[in-house]
Amino acid sequence: MGAVGFTLVEMLVVSAVIAILAALVLPALTRARERADAIACLNNTRQLGLAVLLYVDDHDGFLPYNMALYDTGLRSNLNWANNVMTRDLSSDNTNVDTLTQASLGAYLNRNTTVYHCPADQSMSAVQLAAGWNHRIRSYSMNGMIGNPGTPSLTGGNASNPDYRQFLKIAQIPRPSEIFVFLDEQPDSIKDGCFLNTDSSNANSLLDVLYGGSGGDLAWQDLPASYHNRNAALSQADGHAEFHRWLNSETVQAAQPNSPYDPVVVTSNGEDFQWVLSRTSIKLSPSRAGSD
């Protein structure tokens, strides 16, 4: 009896069947992985938010420090996170001590995975060449939440002078509507302080620096959109949720080998205004701009 084998036609048929099955299965596996990443990201923001509430309980109602480390060059473990994300080989991108030794580290049991969204794999060519898997932080804190290092007597913020800087949790009037953390676009993340300015106030610090005049809106810090145009946010009451961005200008793909820290100008401000309305509340006219 001769040896039994596959004919060329049979092999082609089997290959075609395998290709068809792969085409059917792989998209489903990709969607499942994307969904798992989104759930993990939402859980991370929830844990970060709950860590803030635990911190508040231990500090007489005061929120953590949230200083703009990138703009000032400061480094302090008083801050909720003590690093600045870059596109070079700075140790801030990989040194977990900048998270575990910072003020929220103990309230997260030194678990550094909470600070990183699994969908955030953005690295520059030089970082990939160094063998890095990812940078260690994907999230930022609302810049109007916490002690910015130079709190004003009126409760304002030089970068957003018409709005309230929340130094204590009890000062937040609608905790279910004011966000504490969100995942930030990897080209803009830098330090852990997420802040944009009300462009209707041409005297605010960011408007002076970036040319705002009450016209087009400029995202100096841009939210991420990893999860099907959604970003994960935790609110001051402890819950976390996704928000889907409506404007195409908000949904920016990472460009890790381009100039860092882009300013994205949008003519349609639905997303910008949504974030602004959940950043803080306006100060009364007698207090606004009087810092």
Which helices and strands, and how do they pair?
Layout: H1 8-58, H2 69-72, H3 97-100, H4 125-129, E1 139-142, E2 179-183, E3 193-194, H5 205-210, E4 217-219, E5 230-235, E6 240-244, E7 264-266, H6 270-277
Parallel strand pairs: 1-3
Antiparallel strand pairs: 1-2, 2-5, 4-7, 5-6
Features:
10% strand, alpha+beta, 291 residues, two-stranded antiparallel ribbon, elongated, 27% helix
Describe the 3D structure.
By secondary structure, this protein is an alpha+beta fold. The chain has one domain (8-277). It is built from six helices and seven strands, in the order ααααβββαββββα. The chain has helices spanning 8-58, 69-72, 97-100, 125-129, 205-210, 270-277, and strands at 139-142, 179-183, 193-194, 217-219, 230-235, 240-244, 264-266. The strands form two sheets. Strands 3-1-2-5-6 form a five-stranded mixed sheet. A two-stranded antiparallel ribbon has the order 4-7. β5 and β6 form a beta hairpin.
